Amino acid sequence: MIEVHNISKSYRRDSLEIPVLSNITLDVPEGEFLALMGPSGSGKTTLLNLIAGIDRPNTGSITVNGTDIATLNESNLATWRSHNVGFIFQFYNLLPVLTAFENVELPLLLTNLSKKERREHVEAALKLVGLGDRMKHYPKQLSGGQEQRVAIARAIVTDPTVLVADEPTGDLDRVSAGEIMVLMDRLNKEFKKTIVMVTHDPRAAEKAHKVMHLDKGELN
Amino acid sequence: MFVIKLVLKNALRHKLRTFLTILGIAIAVMSFGFLRTIVTAWSAGVESSAANRMIVRHSVSFIFPLPYAYKEQIARIPGVDMVSYANWFGGVYKDPADFKNFFPRIAVDPETYFDMYPEFVIPPDQLAAFKAEQGSCIVGEKIAKELGFKIGDPMPIDGDIYPGRWDFVIRGIYRGKDATADETQMLFHWNYLNERVKELQPGREGNVGWYVLKVHNPAEMPLIAKTVDQFYLNSRAGTKTETEREFQQSFVSMSSAIIRSLEIVSYIIIGIILLVLANTIVMAARERTTEYAVLKTIGFSSRHIIGLIGGESLLIAGIGGVIGLLLTFPIAAGFAGMFPTFFPVFNVETITIILAAVVATFAGVVAALFPTIRALRTSIAEGLRAIG
């Protein structure tokens, strides 16, 4: 499903080259729930971004569902992301001027679906995350846990095969975090989503099938 | 559709900031439009000049007179269809400190003047009454309205260039054929002036201020000018013959420093509009760095980001521009009302409206340029890390 082969990534700060990942090789089979753990600055988010196609490796290849995403140009990569990947962020990253319904509808605006079809998809996604009664609410009218559930609905509304989550419980209290992880677990088991999740939270990592540790840019 | 919806919602996100920006742009556009209207009004005489009229004046200066005897000689020059003449009178009407009383008073040839200037329209009976009575005068409709003149009203003038009290009776009110015609003049018989001068200041009579020529073919104007000026080259009063446009332009150029200053200020205002708008858009775009990154992550393209930032900038500039333009009209009308006779023609011209609209649009585009480029250049990973 996801084949990461020998990738390296470094960032340039002025004249300084800062290595972040070195020679990472990783296979994530379809339906896997993988948790990436490690200290701050270990390269977890960078690896997640590379798998999700929002950053590019300096060397190596990343193949998702048979597509080598490192070879796609920006435009094709954007299209690929919209079809194949759902994103869940630590701080939800909902657009504050849009309602829960409108936020979830965003990825569908790039498809050819009719307005009626979009409405059906959005309502289904919001009902799935338990927010069928909060569609017209703005993010500021929702709790942190509810905002994250809207973000999850936005991530799954296009029915992508891969979900990437960057510390999805990092900004939540224990109860809300537990609810989110139950939802993630359900998406993996019931809807067969392949999930790659970065987390610091051992309780969140417990839901994953596999936990890998990154330290100083190397995978253990 | 989504971009338009989000542009509208984004613009209303910080209502006070958007309102103040729109207000700033509106005031700036209004000031721009107003200043351009003044500049245009200053040049109104030039713009309304006829293509087939020429002016003959003294070669040294406009203030020196020309002999009346030149009239018949000039009329015989080939290509000249008609000759008329006029003389600046000056004088004071009532309180000179009141701007309403400041209007041109000119002695003219009643037989030819209105044929020479068809843009001044007067009813035939009023023109006939004017021609028949030497002490009569005709006033423009604008000052007639402003000062409440009616046919038959007396108009006493205290002379300055030509001392003494001068009594006139209004026998006609002319109106302009269109909005560019000067309706602020008071015109009276040159003969009346000449006879009083002969009586009070012997030796000063028999002069006119300038001649107006109607030429058959405008293409012959350079030749006619040369012929007239050559003819009087060695006379006691040499002439300078030029097109009416050049003649009017020479008046405008006397005030060129003021006009130039107004133009510079109007350009500075464009800069102010840009800064006001750019400040708002740069702030807004910076605050939304993460949101743009999220949109790009989801799959939205650069086109959408350009639409969002550019659309908001153009929306604010457009609303500010429209309000500013709408405000320009009452402001210009108020100014024209305060100084009704200072600018004979004071209209917000179409070109001013177009210029103001172009300025607002230009500001909208330029203000969005830098934040758009920055938003496009910011990688998704950087954008997601950004703190707005």
Characterization of this structure:
Helices cover 33% and strands 27% of the residues of chain A. Chain A has 220 residues and is α/β, with parallel strands linked by helices. Chain A has a domain at 2-93 and 160-219: P-loop containing nucleotide triphosphate hydrolases (Rossmann fold, 3-Layer(aba) Sandwich). A six-stranded mixed sheet of chain A has the order 6-7-8-3-9-10. In chain A, α4 crosses α5. Chain B has two domains: 2-44 and 256-385, no CATH class; 65-236, no CATH class. Chain B has 15 helices and twelve strands. The longest helix of chain B has 37 residues, at 302-338. Chain B is elongated and about 95 Å long.
What summary fits the major beta sheet of chain A? 6 strands, mixed
Give the fraction of residues assigned to helices of chain A: 25-40%
Q: From the alpha-carbon coordinates, what is the Rg of chain A to the nearest angstrom? A: 17 Å
Overall 3D shape of chain B: elongated
Work out the oligomeric state of the chains in this entry: heterodimer
**CATH topology title of the domain at 2-93 and 160-219 in chain A:** Rossmann fold
Unreliable segments of 5+ consecutive residues of chain A: none
Helix vs. strand class of chain A: alpha/beta
**Strand/helix succession of chain B:** HHHEEHEEHEHEHEEEHEEHEHHHHHH
List keywords for this structure.
heterodimer; A: 220 residues; alpha/beta; Rossmann fold; six-stranded mixed sheet; four-stranded antiparallel sheet; 10 strands; B: 388 residues; alpha+beta; 2 domains; ten-stranded mixed sheet; two-stranded antiparallel sheet; 15 helices
Task: Give a brief rundown of this model.
The complex is a heterodimer of chains A (220) and B (388). Chain A is an alpha/beta fold.
Topology:
The complex is a heterodimer of chains A (220) and B (388).
Chain A (H helix, E strand, L loop, with lengths): L1 E12 L2 E13 L4 E5 L6 H9 L6 E6 L2 E2 L5 H11 E4 L11 H6 L9 H14 L15 H13 L5 E5 L7 H16 L4 E5 L3 H4 L4 E6 L2 E2 L1
Parallel strand pairs in A: 3-8, 3-9, 6-7, 7-8
Antiparallel strand pairs in A: 1-2, 1-4, 4-5, 9-10
Chain B lengths: L1 H10 L3 H28 L1 H4 L5 E6 L7 E2 L2 H6 L4 E9 L16 E4 L4 H4 L3 E2 L2 H9 L3 E5 H7 L6 E6 L4 E13 L9 E4 H11 L6 E2 L1 E6 L5 H11 L7 E5 H11 L1 H32 L1 H10 L3 H37 L11 H28 L2 H6 L3
Parallel strand pairs in B: 4-9, 6-8
Antiparallel strand pairs in B: 1-11, 1-12, 2-10, 3-4, 3-11, 5-8, 6-9, 7-8
Helix pairs in contact in B: 1-13, 2-11, 2-13, 2-14, 11-13, 11-14, 13-14
